[in-house]
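Minimal example, chain plus iron/sulfur cluster.
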Amino acid sequence: MEKIYDAIVVGTGAGGGMAIKTVCEAGLKVLALNPGRRVDPAKDFRGHKQRYDMKYRGFGDPKTVRYHDEKEYTEGLWEHDVTYTTAPGTQWEWLRVKVTGGKANFWGRSSARFGEIDFKAASQDGFDVDWPVSYEEMAPYYSRVEKWIGVASTVQNRPSNPDGEYLPPVKLRCIDRILQKGAEKVGVPYVEDRIAQLTVPHNGHPACHYCANCSSGCDTGSFFSPPWFTLPDAEKTGNFELRTNAIAKNVLVDDNGRAKGVAYVDRNTRQEVEVYGKTVVLAASCLETAKIMLNSKSRYWPTGIANSSGELGRNLCDHLYATSAYGYLPQLLGQPSLPDNISASTVVWMPRWQNLKDPRQEKFIRGYSVYPGGGCGEFPYYYRRIEGFGSHFKRDIKWYYPTPVSFTIQAPSLPNKNNYLDIDPEVKDIFGIPVLRFHFQWGTNELLMWEHSKQICAEVLRTAGGELLGAGEHPETPGYSQHETGPCRFGNDPKKFVTNRYGQCHDVSNLYICDASIFPYCTDKTTTLSILAFTLRTCEYLIENMRKGNG
Ligand SMILES: Cc1cc2nc3c(=O)[nH]c(=O)nc-3n(C[C@H](O)[C@H](O)[C@H](O)COP(=O)(O)OP(=O)(O)OC[C@H]3O[C@@H](n4cnc5c(N)ncnc54)[C@H](O)[C@@H]3O)c2cc1C
Ligand code: SF4
Protein backbone atom coordinates (compact mmCIF):
# COMPACT_ATOMS: atom_id res chain seq x y z
CA MET A 1 0.00 0.00 0.00
CA GLU A 2 1.36 3.45 -0.96
CA LYS A 3 2.22 5.78 1.91
CA ILE A 4 -0.06 8.83 2.21
CA TYR A 5 1.68 11.82 3.79
CA ASP A 6 -0.19 14.61 5.55
CA ALA A 7 1.40 17.05 3.11
CA ILE A 8 3.56 16.95 0.00
CA VAL A 9 5.57 20.17 -0.33
CA VAL A 10 7.11 20.94 -3.72
CA GLY A 11 10.29 23.01 -3.30
CA THR A 12 12.60 23.67 -0.35
CA GLY A 13 13.47 27.33 -0.97
CA ALA A 14 12.24 30.43 0.85
CA GLY A 15 8.54 29.54 0.65
CA GLY A 16 8.90 25.75 0.68
CA GLY A 17 11.32 25.72 3.61
CA MET A 18 9.03 27.94 5.68
CA ALA A 19 6.04 25.74 4.77
CA ILE A 20 7.92 22.55 5.69
CA LYS A 21 9.09 23.93 9.05
CA THR A 22 5.64 25.27 9.97
CA VAL A 23 3.65 22.14 9.17
CA CYS A 24 6.28 19.73 10.55
CA GLU A 25 6.36 21.63 13.83
CA ALA A 26 2.57 21.30 13.99
CA GLY A 27 3.00 17.50 13.87
CA LEU A 28 2.15 16.83 10.22
CA LYS A 29 4.11 14.18 8.32
CA VAL A 30 5.69 15.88 5.32
CA LEU A 31 7.37 14.71 2.15
CA ALA A 32 9.28 17.46 0.32
CA LEU A 33 10.38 17.19 -3.30
CA ASN A 34 13.48 18.96 -4.52
CA PRO A 35 14.78 18.82 -8.11
CA GLY A 36 18.48 18.64 -7.22
CA ARG A 37 20.70 17.33 -4.48
CA ARG A 38 20.88 18.38 -0.85
CA VAL A 39 23.49 21.04 -0.05
CA ASP A 40 25.55 21.06 3.08
CA PRO A 41 26.26 24.80 3.25
CA ALA A 42 29.18 24.54 5.68
CA LYS A 43 31.02 22.27 3.22
CA ASP A 44 29.59 23.12 -0.20
CA PHE A 45 29.92 26.90 -0.10
CA ARG A 46 33.52 27.81 -0.76
CA GLY A 47 33.32 31.57 -1.00
CA HIS A 48 36.54 32.05 0.98
CA LYS A 49 38.63 30.61 -1.83
CA GLN A 50 40.46 33.44 -3.56
CA ARG A 51 39.56 34.22 -7.15
CA TYR A 52 43.17 33.88 -8.24
CA ASP A 53 43.10 30.30 -6.95
CA MET A 54 40.23 29.43 -9.26
CA LYS A 55 40.61 28.30 -12.83
CA TYR A 56 38.21 30.92 -14.24
CA ARG A 57 38.96 33.58 -11.58
CA GLY A 58 35.58 32.93 -9.93
CA PHE A 59 33.56 33.81 -13.04
CA GLY A 60 33.21 30.19 -14.17
CA ASP A 61 33.70 28.41 -17.46
CA PRO A 62 32.09 30.66 -20.11
CA LYS A 63 31.04 27.51 -21.97
CA THR A 64 28.92 26.23 -19.08
CA VAL A 65 27.92 29.24 -16.95
CA ARG A 66 24.48 30.31 -18.14
CA TYR A 67 23.01 33.00 -15.88
CA HIS A 68 24.21 36.43 -14.85
CA ASP A 69 24.23 35.40 -11.16
CA GLU A 70 25.95 32.05 -11.71
CA LYS A 71 29.64 31.82 -10.77
CA GLU A 72 32.50 29.37 -10.56
CA TYR A 73 31.85 29.24 -6.81
CA THR A 74 28.34 27.86 -7.38
CA GLU A 75 28.94 25.72 -10.46
CA GLY A 76 26.60 22.74 -10.73
CA LEU A 77 24.04 24.21 -8.33
CA TRP A 78 21.91 26.11 -10.87
CA GLU A 79 19.26 24.49 -13.07
CA HIS A 80 20.32 23.95 -16.69
CA ASP A 81 18.35 20.87 -17.76
CA VAL A 82 14.79 22.08 -17.25
CA THR A 83 14.44 24.43 -20.20
CA TYR A 84 11.85 26.98 -21.39
CA THR A 85 10.94 28.95 -24.48
CA THR A 86 10.02 32.56 -25.23
CA ALA A 87 7.34 33.75 -27.66
CA PRO A 88 8.56 35.80 -30.67
CA GLY A 89 9.61 39.26 -29.46
CA THR A 90 9.95 38.16 -25.81
CA GLN A 91 13.20 37.95 -23.91
CA TRP A 92 13.30 36.32 -20.47
CA GLU A 93 16.15 35.05 -18.32
CA TRP A 94 14.70 32.35 -16.04
CA LEU A 95 17.17 31.66 -13.24
CA ARG A 96 16.59 28.68 -10.94
CA VAL A 97 18.71 26.92 -8.35
CA LYS A 98 18.13 23.18 -8.23
CA VAL A 99 19.74 22.25 -4.89
CA THR A 100 17.90 22.39 -1.56
CA GLY A 101 17.24 25.98 -0.51
CA GLY A 102 16.80 27.20 -4.10
CA LYS A 103 17.64 30.79 -4.90
CA ALA A 104 17.32 31.64 -1.22
CA ASN A 105 20.88 30.27 -0.79
CA PHE A 106 22.26 33.18 -2.79
CA TRP A 107 19.72 35.97 -2.45
CA GLY A 108 20.59 39.66 -1.94
CA ARG A 109 18.72 39.82 1.43
CA SER A 110 17.00 43.15 0.84
CA SER A 111 13.91 42.69 3.03
CA ALA A 112 11.42 45.56 3.27
CA ARG A 113 7.83 44.93 4.30
CA PHE A 114 5.01 45.67 1.88
CA GLY A 115 2.64 48.31 3.27
CA GLU A 116 -0.96 49.47 3.00
CA ILE A 117 0.11 51.69 0.08
CA ASP A 118 0.98 48.46 -1.80
CA PHE A 119 -2.00 46.36 -0.72
CA LYS A 120 -4.51 49.12 -1.53
CA ALA A 121 -2.82 50.50 -4.65
CA ALA A 122 -5.89 50.05 -6.85
CA SER A 123 -8.13 51.93 -4.41
CA GLN A 124 -5.71 54.85 -4.63
CA ASP A 125 -5.13 55.10 -8.38
CA GLY A 126 -8.04 53.13 -9.83
CA PHE A 127 -5.89 50.66 -11.78
CA ASP A 128 -6.41 46.87 -11.47
CA VAL A 129 -7.24 45.25 -8.09
CA ASP A 130 -6.31 45.60 -4.43
CA TRP A 131 -4.69 42.75 -2.52
CA PRO A 132 -7.17 40.76 -0.43
CA VAL A 133 -5.33 41.62 2.83
CA SER A 134 -4.62 44.70 4.92
CA TYR A 135 -1.29 45.73 6.38
CA GLU A 136 -2.75 45.48 9.88
CA GLU A 137 -3.49 41.81 9.25
CA MET A 138 0.00 41.08 7.88
CA ALA A 139 2.10 43.12 10.34
CA PRO A 140 2.23 40.39 13.05
CA TYR A 141 3.44 37.82 10.49
CA TYR A 142 6.17 40.18 9.29
CA SER A 143 7.23 40.74 12.91
CA ARG A 144 7.43 37.04 13.65
CA VAL A 145 9.52 36.40 10.52
CA GLU A 146 11.85 39.35 11.13
CA LYS A 147 12.41 38.41 14.76
CA TRP A 148 13.21 34.86 13.76
CA ILE A 149 15.45 35.38 10.68
CA GLY A 150 17.08 38.65 11.83
CA VAL A 151 16.83 41.77 9.66
CA ALA A 152 19.26 44.67 10.12
CA SER A 153 17.96 48.21 9.58
CA THR A 154 16.78 51.41 11.25
CA VAL A 155 13.37 52.85 12.09
CA GLN A 156 12.65 55.35 9.32
CA ASN A 157 9.04 56.51 9.74
CA ARG A 158 8.43 56.61 6.01
CA PRO A 159 4.95 56.31 4.51
CA SER A 160 5.80 53.78 1.79
CA ASN A 161 7.77 51.20 3.79
CA PRO A 162 6.55 50.30 7.27
CA ASP A 163 9.16 49.84 9.98
CA GLY A 164 9.78 46.42 11.51
CA GLU A 165 11.75 44.67 14.24
CA TYR A 166 15.41 45.28 13.49
CA LEU A 167 18.94 44.27 14.46
CA PRO A 168 21.58 47.05 14.38
CA PRO A 169 22.07 48.30 10.80
CA VAL A 170 24.98 47.61 8.49
CA LYS A 171 27.31 50.65 8.68
CA LEU A 172 27.15 53.18 5.85
CA ARG A 173 30.05 53.35 3.40
CA CYS A 174 32.10 56.43 2.61
CA ILE A 175 30.16 56.91 -0.64
CA ASP A 176 26.88 56.78 1.30
CA ARG A 177 27.85 59.60 3.62
CA ILE A 178 28.59 61.77 0.57
CA LEU A 179 25.57 60.75 -1.55
CA GLN A 180 23.21 61.01 1.43
CA LYS A 181 24.03 64.73 1.66
CA GLY A 182 23.21 65.12 -2.04
CA ALA A 183 19.91 63.27 -1.60
CA GLU A 184 18.98 65.45 1.39
CA LYS A 185 19.45 68.60 -0.71
CA VAL A 186 17.43 67.16 -3.60
CA GLY A 187 14.70 66.12 -1.14
CA VAL A 188 14.69 62.35 -1.73
CA PRO A 189 15.27 59.61 0.88
CA TYR A 190 18.64 57.87 1.22
CA VAL A 191 18.47 55.46 4.15
CA GLU A 192 19.69 52.10 5.43
CA ASP A 193 18.20 49.16 3.52
CA ARG A 194 16.43 46.38 5.42
CA ILE A 195 18.94 43.51 5.18
CA ALA A 196 18.39 39.94 6.39
CA GLN A 197 22.01 39.68 7.48
CA LEU A 198 23.12 39.17 11.06
CA THR A 199 25.03 42.19 12.33
CA VAL A 200 24.99 40.51 15.76
CA PRO A 201 24.60 36.83 16.80
CA HIS A 202 20.93 35.93 16.55
CA ASN A 203 18.80 32.92 17.52
CA GLY A 204 21.80 30.58 17.62
CA HIS A 205 23.29 31.84 14.34
CA PRO A 206 26.68 33.60 14.39
CA ALA A 207 27.08 37.22 13.35
CA CYS A 208 28.33 37.96 9.85
CA HIS A 209 32.13 37.89 9.55
CA TYR A 210 31.99 40.23 6.54
CA CYS A 211 33.68 38.05 3.96
CA ALA A 212 31.48 39.46 1.13
CA ASN A 213 30.64 36.09 -0.37
CA CYS A 214 26.88 36.04 0.21
CA SER A 215 25.93 35.51 -3.42
CA SER A 216 28.04 32.32 -3.39
CA GLY A 217 26.31 31.07 -0.23
CA CYS A 218 27.21 31.62 3.43
CA ASP A 219 29.32 28.96 5.13
CA THR A 220 28.34 30.10 8.66
CA GLY A 221 24.61 30.73 8.23
CA SER A 222 24.89 34.43 9.01
CA PHE A 223 21.99 35.34 6.75
CA PHE A 224 18.65 33.60 6.30
CA SER A 225 18.75 30.63 3.96
CA PRO A 226 16.68 27.43 4.15
CA PRO A 227 19.58 24.97 4.64
CA TRP A 228 20.69 26.97 7.70
CA PHE A 229 17.31 27.96 9.11
CA THR A 230 14.06 26.29 8.12
CA LEU A 231 15.17 22.83 6.99
CA PRO A 232 17.22 21.95 10.12
CA ASP A 233 14.24 23.01 12.28
CA ALA A 234 11.96 20.74 10.26
CA GLU A 235 14.44 17.88 10.55
CA LYS A 236 14.46 18.17 14.35
CA THR A 237 10.73 17.31 14.46
CA GLY A 238 11.22 13.83 12.99
CA ASN A 239 8.25 14.56 10.68
CA PHE A 240 10.25 15.57 7.60
CA GLU A 241 11.26 13.37 4.69
CA LEU A 242 13.13 14.78 1.72
CA ARG A 243 13.19 13.31 -1.78
CA THR A 244 16.07 14.78 -3.79
CA ASN A 245 16.48 14.85 -7.61
CA ALA A 246 12.67 14.81 -7.81
CA ILE A 247 11.39 17.22 -10.49
CA ALA A 248 7.67 17.74 -9.88
CA LYS A 249 5.75 17.43 -13.14
CA ASN A 250 2.08 17.69 -12.22
CA VAL A 251 -0.40 17.50 -9.37
CA LEU A 252 -2.36 14.24 -9.29
CA VAL A 253 -6.12 14.41 -8.76
CA ASP A 254 -8.68 11.98 -7.37
CA ASP A 255 -12.10 11.13 -8.75
CA ASN A 256 -13.46 14.44 -7.47
CA GLY A 257 -10.75 16.61 -8.99
CA ARG A 258 -9.07 17.17 -5.60
CA ALA A 259 -5.31 16.94 -5.17
CA LYS A 260 -4.14 13.48 -4.14
CA GLY A 261 -0.39 13.78 -4.69
CA VAL A 262 2.33 14.76 -7.13
CA ALA A 263 3.97 13.05 -10.10
CA TYR A 264 7.69 13.76 -10.40
CA VAL A 265 10.50 12.71 -12.72
CA ASP A 266 13.64 11.33 -11.09
CA ARG A 267 16.55 13.37 -12.48
CA ASN A 268 18.89 10.36 -12.48
CA THR A 269 16.67 7.55 -13.78
CA ARG A 270 14.26 9.79 -15.77
CA GLN A 271 11.45 7.56 -14.50
CA GLU A 272 8.12 9.07 -13.45
CA VAL A 273 7.16 8.43 -9.82
CA GLU A 274 3.92 9.18 -7.95
CA VAL A 275 3.71 10.25 -4.29
CA TYR A 276 0.53 10.81 -2.31
CA GLY A 277 -0.62 13.29 0.31
CA LYS A 278 -3.76 14.59 1.97
CA THR A 279 -2.65 18.10 1.06
CA VAL A 280 -0.32 19.47 -1.60
CA VAL A 281 1.68 22.69 -1.13
CA LEU A 282 3.30 24.19 -4.22
CA ALA A 283 6.37 26.33 -3.46
CA ALA A 284 8.53 25.69 -6.50
CA SER A 285 8.89 29.49 -6.93
CA CYS A 286 6.52 31.78 -8.82
CA LEU A 287 7.02 30.60 -12.40
CA GLU A 288 7.62 26.90 -11.79
CA THR A 289 4.52 26.64 -9.58
CA ALA A 290 2.45 28.11 -12.42
CA LYS A 291 4.08 25.65 -14.84
CA ILE A 292 3.30 22.64 -12.64
CA MET A 293 -0.32 23.78 -12.37
CA LEU A 294 -0.64 24.44 -16.12
CA ASN A 295 0.81 20.97 -16.74
CA SER A 296 -1.73 19.42 -14.31
CA LYS A 297 -4.42 18.80 -16.92
CA SER A 298 -7.16 16.26 -16.33
CA ARG A 299 -10.77 15.66 -17.20
CA TYR A 300 -11.63 18.02 -14.33
CA TRP A 301 -9.07 20.63 -15.16
CA PRO A 302 -8.64 20.73 -18.94
CA THR A 303 -6.60 23.98 -18.87
CA GLY A 304 -4.61 23.25 -15.71
CA ILE A 305 -5.56 22.48 -12.12
CA ALA A 306 -7.72 24.98 -10.26
CA ASN A 307 -8.10 27.15 -13.35
CA SER A 308 -11.85 27.65 -13.57
CA SER A 309 -11.16 31.42 -13.48
CA GLY A 310 -8.93 31.17 -16.59
CA GLU A 311 -6.42 33.38 -14.72
CA LEU A 312 -3.72 30.73 -14.20
CA GLY A 313 -0.52 31.91 -15.90
CA ARG A 314 -1.83 35.43 -16.53
CA ASN A 315 -0.81 38.76 -14.90
CA LEU A 316 2.92 38.07 -15.10
CA CYS A 317 4.76 41.00 -13.50
CA ASP A 318 8.44 41.65 -12.85
CA HIS A 319 10.81 44.30 -11.57
CA LEU A 320 12.48 46.38 -14.25
CA TYR A 321 16.14 46.66 -13.23
CA ALA A 322 18.30 49.26 -14.97
CA THR A 323 21.10 51.71 -14.26
CA SER A 324 19.59 55.12 -13.60
CA ALA A 325 22.94 56.92 -13.31
CA TYR A 326 26.61 56.12 -12.87
CA GLY A 327 29.71 58.17 -12.30
CA TYR A 328 32.30 58.79 -9.62
CA LEU A 329 33.06 60.95 -6.61
CA PRO A 330 36.17 63.06 -7.38
CA GLN A 331 36.56 63.93 -3.67
CA LEU A 332 37.61 60.29 -3.12
CA LEU A 333 40.21 60.10 -5.92
CA GLY A 334 43.46 58.63 -4.64
CA GLN A 335 42.05 58.04 -1.14
CA PRO A 336 43.01 54.86 0.73
CA SER A 337 40.92 51.78 -0.07
CA LEU A 338 38.29 50.83 2.50
CA PRO A 339 36.52 47.45 2.62
CA ASP A 340 33.28 48.90 1.24
CA ASN A 341 31.73 45.69 -0.03
CA ILE A 342 32.47 43.47 2.95
CA SER A 343 28.83 43.07 3.78
CA ALA A 344 28.13 42.27 0.10
CA SER A 345 24.68 43.77 0.59
CA THR A 346 22.77 46.70 -0.79
CA VAL A 347 23.53 48.62 2.49
CA VAL A 348 21.29 51.55 1.51
CA TRP A 349 18.27 52.24 -0.63
CA MET A 350 16.12 55.11 -1.74
CA PRO A 351 12.64 53.82 -0.91
CA ARG A 352 9.66 55.04 -2.93
CA TRP A 353 9.14 58.78 -2.67
CA GLN A 354 6.90 59.25 -5.72
CA ASN A 355 3.08 59.55 -5.80
CA LEU A 356 2.84 59.43 -2.03
CA LYS A 357 0.46 62.32 -1.42
CA ASP A 358 -1.33 62.25 -4.77
CA PRO A 359 -1.34 58.83 -6.53
CA ARG A 360 -1.32 60.54 -9.95
CA GLN A 361 1.18 63.30 -9.24
CA GLU A 362 3.76 61.86 -11.68
CA LYS A 363 3.38 60.76 -15.30
CA PHE A 364 3.35 57.18 -14.04
CA ILE A 365 1.27 55.48 -11.33
CA ARG A 366 2.62 53.64 -8.24
CA GLY A 367 6.33 54.03 -7.45
CA TYR A 368 9.86 52.69 -7.63
CA SER A 369 12.87 52.47 -5.36
CA VAL A 370 16.60 52.78 -6.08
CA TYR A 371 19.67 50.94 -4.77
CA PRO A 372 22.81 53.11 -4.76
CA GLY A 373 26.05 51.13 -4.87
CA GLY A 374 29.77 51.54 -5.45
CA GLY A 375 32.92 52.32 -3.52
CA CYS A 376 35.83 49.91 -3.20
CA GLY A 377 34.37 46.82 -4.84
CA GLU A 378 36.15 43.51 -5.19
CA PHE A 379 36.46 43.91 -8.95
CA PRO A 380 37.04 47.31 -10.59
CA TYR A 381 34.36 47.13 -13.31
CA TYR A 382 35.15 50.72 -14.32
CA TYR A 383 38.38 49.40 -15.89
CA ARG A 384 36.71 49.66 -19.30
CA ARG A 385 36.64 53.44 -18.99
CA ILE A 386 40.34 53.73 -18.16
CA GLU A 387 42.81 54.01 -21.00
CA GLY A 388 46.37 52.76 -21.20
CA PHE A 389 48.15 49.65 -20.01
CA GLY A 390 50.94 48.41 -17.73
CA SER A 391 51.92 50.29 -14.58
CA HIS A 392 50.08 53.49 -15.65
CA PHE A 393 46.89 51.53 -16.05
CA LYS A 394 47.33 49.90 -12.63
CA ARG A 395 48.03 53.26 -11.02
CA ASP A 396 44.87 54.76 -12.54
CA ILE A 397 42.79 51.79 -11.43
CA LYS A 398 44.04 52.36 -7.88
CA TRP A 399 43.45 56.13 -8.19
CA TYR A 400 39.77 55.62 -9.06
CA TYR A 401 39.25 52.60 -6.82
CA PRO A 402 37.23 54.24 -3.96
CA THR A 403 35.23 56.52 -6.28
CA PRO A 404 32.74 54.69 -8.57
CA VAL A 405 29.02 54.97 -7.79
CA SER A 406 25.90 53.80 -9.57
CA PHE A 407 22.15 53.78 -9.00
CA THR A 408 19.97 50.76 -9.86
CA ILE A 409 16.23 51.23 -10.22
CA GLN A 410 13.74 48.62 -9.02
CA ALA A 411 10.54 49.49 -10.90
CA PRO A 412 7.43 47.27 -10.74
CA SER A 413 5.77 46.42 -14.04
CA LEU A 414 1.98 46.67 -14.17
CA PRO A 415 -0.24 43.70 -15.02
CA ASN A 416 -0.99 43.61 -18.73
CA LYS A 417 -3.04 41.10 -20.73
CA ASN A 418 -0.11 40.51 -23.11
CA ASN A 419 2.24 39.42 -20.31
CA TYR A 420 1.53 35.81 -19.42
CA LEU A 421 2.80 32.23 -19.28
CA ASP A 422 1.57 29.18 -21.13
CA ILE A 423 2.84 25.72 -21.96
CA ASP A 424 4.70 25.48 -25.26
CA PRO A 425 2.69 22.92 -27.28
CA GLU A 426 5.75 21.93 -29.34
CA VAL A 427 8.57 21.55 -26.82
CA LYS A 428 9.43 19.15 -24.00
CA ASP A 429 12.60 19.18 -21.89
CA ILE A 430 14.98 16.23 -21.64
CA PHE A 431 12.79 14.74 -18.90
CA GLY A 432 9.75 14.72 -21.19
CA ILE A 433 8.05 17.58 -19.31
CA PRO A 434 6.27 20.17 -21.50
CA VAL A 435 8.11 23.49 -21.06
CA LEU A 436 6.95 26.92 -19.97
CA ARG A 437 6.66 29.65 -22.61
CA PHE A 438 7.04 33.35 -21.71
CA HIS A 439 5.13 36.24 -23.26
CA PHE A 440 6.41 39.52 -21.85
CA GLN A 441 7.27 43.14 -22.76
CA TRP A 442 8.10 46.08 -20.52
CA GLY A 443 5.24 48.61 -20.36
CA THR A 444 5.17 52.39 -20.59
CA ASN A 445 4.62 52.90 -16.84
CA GLU A 446 7.85 51.21 -15.73
CA LEU A 447 9.83 52.82 -18.59
CA LEU A 448 8.57 56.25 -17.48
CA MET A 449 9.73 55.42 -13.96
CA TRP A 450 13.19 54.69 -15.30
CA GLU A 451 13.29 58.04 -17.17
CA HIS A 452 12.20 59.82 -13.99
CA SER A 453 14.87 58.05 -11.91
CA LYS A 454 17.59 59.03 -14.39
CA GLN A 455 16.92 62.72 -13.74
CA ILE A 456 16.67 62.40 -9.96
CA CYS A 457 19.74 60.16 -9.56
CA ALA A 458 21.84 62.42 -11.81
CA GLU A 459 20.79 65.36 -9.63
CA VAL A 460 21.69 63.50 -6.42
CA LEU A 461 25.09 62.59 -7.82
CA ARG A 462 25.89 66.11 -9.07
CA THR A 463 24.58 67.76 -5.89
CA ALA A 464 26.87 65.49 -3.87
CA GLY A 465 29.82 66.81 -5.89
CA GLY A 466 30.04 63.74 -8.12
CA GLU A 467 30.76 63.47 -11.85
CA LEU A 468 27.95 61.95 -13.90
CA LEU A 469 29.16 59.65 -16.67
CA GLY A 470 25.82 58.38 -17.94
CA ALA A 471 22.94 55.96 -17.48
CA GLY A 472 22.19 52.45 -18.72
CA GLU A 473 21.31 52.15 -22.41
CA HIS A 474 18.58 49.59 -21.90
CA PRO A 475 16.94 47.74 -19.00
CA GLU A 476 18.21 44.34 -17.91
CA THR A 477 16.49 41.37 -19.56
CA PRO A 478 13.10 40.59 -17.97
CA GLY A 479 13.55 37.93 -15.30
CA TYR A 480 16.90 39.40 -14.20
CA SER A 481 15.61 40.52 -10.78
CA GLN A 482 13.99 37.16 -9.89
CA HIS A 483 11.12 39.03 -8.24
CA GLU A 484 8.34 37.95 -10.60
CA THR A 485 4.72 37.78 -9.38
CA GLY A 486 1.17 37.19 -10.58
CA PRO A 487 0.39 33.90 -12.37
CA CYS A 488 -1.66 32.38 -9.50
CA ARG A 489 -3.15 35.61 -8.14
CA PHE A 490 -5.01 35.57 -4.84
CA GLY A 491 -8.34 37.31 -4.27
CA ASN A 492 -11.78 36.78 -2.87
CA ASP A 493 -13.75 36.16 -6.08
CA PRO A 494 -13.30 32.57 -7.42
CA LYS A 495 -14.26 33.80 -10.90
CA LYS A 496 -11.31 36.21 -11.02
CA PHE A 497 -8.58 34.67 -8.87
CA VAL A 498 -6.78 31.34 -8.62
CA THR A 499 -6.52 31.20 -4.82
CA ASN A 500 -8.39 32.73 -1.92
CA ARG A 501 -6.84 35.27 0.43
CA TYR A 502 -4.91 32.49 2.20
CA GLY A 503 -3.22 31.02 -0.88
CA GLN A 504 -5.67 28.08 -0.88
CA CYS A 505 -6.94 27.28 -4.39
CA HIS A 506 -10.57 28.29 -4.82
CA ASP A 507 -11.30 25.20 -6.91
CA VAL A 508 -9.21 22.63 -5.04
CA SER A 509 -9.34 23.20 -1.30
CA ASN A 510 -6.44 20.87 -0.44
CA LEU A 511 -4.02 22.64 -2.82
CA TYR A 512 -2.07 25.60 -1.34
CA ILE A 513 0.50 27.95 -2.86
CA CYS A 514 3.47 29.33 -0.91
CA ASP A 515 5.43 31.63 -3.23
CA ALA A 516 5.15 34.97 -5.02
CA SER A 517 2.86 33.59 -7.74
CA ILE A 518 -0.13 34.57 -5.55
CA PHE A 519 0.95 38.23 -5.28
CA PRO A 520 -1.20 40.22 -7.73
CA TYR A 521 1.68 42.48 -8.82
CA CYS A 522 5.14 43.70 -7.81
CA THR A 523 5.65 46.69 -5.52
CA ASP A 524 8.77 48.83 -5.18
CA LYS A 525 10.09 46.24 -2.68
CA THR A 526 11.66 42.81 -3.07
CA THR A 527 9.50 39.74 -2.46
CA THR A 528 11.26 37.20 -0.20
CA LEU A 529 10.37 38.62 3.23
CA SER A 530 6.76 38.74 2.07
CA ILE A 531 6.93 35.16 0.72
CA LEU A 532 8.03 34.08 4.22
CA ALA A 533 5.32 36.09 6.00
CA PHE A 534 2.50 34.99 3.68
CA THR A 535 3.69 31.36 3.79
CA LEU A 536 3.58 31.38 7.58
CA ARG A 537 0.00 32.66 7.42
CA THR A 538 -1.04 30.17 4.71
CA CYS A 539 0.42 27.21 6.59
CA GLU A 540 -1.20 28.13 9.89
CA TYR A 541 -4.49 28.33 8.01
CA LEU A 542 -3.78 24.94 6.39
CA ILE A 543 -3.02 23.37 9.80
CA GLU A 544 -6.22 24.81 11.24
CA ASN A 545 -8.22 23.45 8.28
CA MET A 546 -6.70 20.00 8.70
CA ARG A 547 -7.45 20.05 12.43
CA LYS A 548 -11.06 20.88 11.64
CA GLY A 549 -11.12 18.21 8.92
CA ASN A 550 -11.70 20.85 6.19
CA GLY A 551 -8.52 20.57 4.18
C1 LIG B 1 21.60 36.72 -6.61
C2 LIG B 1 20.19 36.89 -6.10
C3 LIG B 1 19.83 38.07 -5.44
C4 LIG B 1 18.54 38.20 -4.93
N1 LIG B 1 18.26 39.31 -4.17
C5 LIG B 1 17.09 39.37 -3.49
C6 LIG B 1 16.86 40.38 -2.52
O1 LIG B 1 17.73 41.22 -2.25
N2 LIG B 1 15.68 40.40 -1.87
C7 LIG B 1 14.70 39.49 -2.14
O2 LIG B 1 13.63 39.56 -1.52
N3 LIG B 1 14.89 38.51 -3.05
C8 LIG B 1 16.06 38.43 -3.72
N4 LIG B 1 16.28 37.41 -4.61
C9 LIG B 1 15.16 36.53 -4.96
C10 LIG B 1 14.94 35.45 -3.93
O3 LIG B 1 15.98 34.51 -3.99
C11 LIG B 1 13.61 34.80 -4.23
O4 LIG B 1 12.58 35.79 -4.09
C12 LIG B 1 13.24 33.68 -3.27
O5 LIG B 1 14.26 32.72 -3.17
C13 LIG B 1 11.97 33.04 -3.81
O6 LIG B 1 11.56 32.03 -2.95
P1 LIG B 1 10.84 30.76 -3.56
O7 LIG B 1 10.63 29.80 -2.46
O8 LIG B 1 9.67 31.20 -4.35
O9 LIG B 1 11.90 30.20 -4.64
P2 LIG B 1 13.30 29.48 -4.33
O10 LIG B 1 13.90 30.02 -3.09
O11 LIG B 1 14.09 29.49 -5.58
O12 LIG B 1 12.83 27.98 -4.02
C14 LIG B 1 12.18 27.20 -5.01
C15 LIG B 1 12.40 25.76 -4.66
O13 LIG B 1 11.66 24.93 -5.55
C16 LIG B 1 12.52 23.97 -6.14
N5 LIG B 1 11.92 23.59 -7.42
C17 LIG B 1 11.90 24.26 -8.58
N6 LIG B 1 11.27 23.54 -9.51
C18 LIG B 1 10.86 22.39 -8.93
C19 LIG B 1 10.17 21.25 -9.39
N7 LIG B 1 9.72 21.13 -10.64
N8 LIG B 1 9.97 20.22 -8.53
C20 LIG B 1 10.41 20.29 -7.24
N9 LIG B 1 11.03 21.37 -6.74
C21 LIG B 1 11.26 22.41 -7.59
C22 LIG B 1 13.85 24.69 -6.21
O14 LIG B 1 14.92 23.83 -6.42
C23 LIG B 1 13.86 25.33 -4.83
O15 LIG B 1 14.18 24.38 -3.83
C24 LIG B 1 17.56 37.21 -5.15
C25 LIG B 1 17.92 36.04 -5.82
C26 LIG B 1 19.22 35.86 -6.27
C27 LIG B 1 19.59 34.56 -6.92
S1 SF4 C 1 29.43 38.49 4.31
FE1 SF4 C 1 28.51 37.67 6.17
S2 SF4 C 1 26.51 36.86 5.56
FE2 SF4 C 1 27.72 37.15 3.68
S3 SF4 C 1 28.69 35.14 3.29
FE3 SF4 C 1 30.18 36.36 4.54
S4 SF4 C 1 29.70 35.82 6.68
FE4 SF4 C 1 27.95 35.13 5.43
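The pocket of flavin-adenine dinucleotide (ligand 1) is lined by residues 10-16, 33-36, 69, 96-98, 100, 102-104, 106-110, 215, 247-248, 283-286, 288, 482, 515-516, 526-528, 531 (CB under 6 Å). The chain has two domains: 1-39+77-107+225-315+419-442+478-551, 154-222+317-413+443-471.
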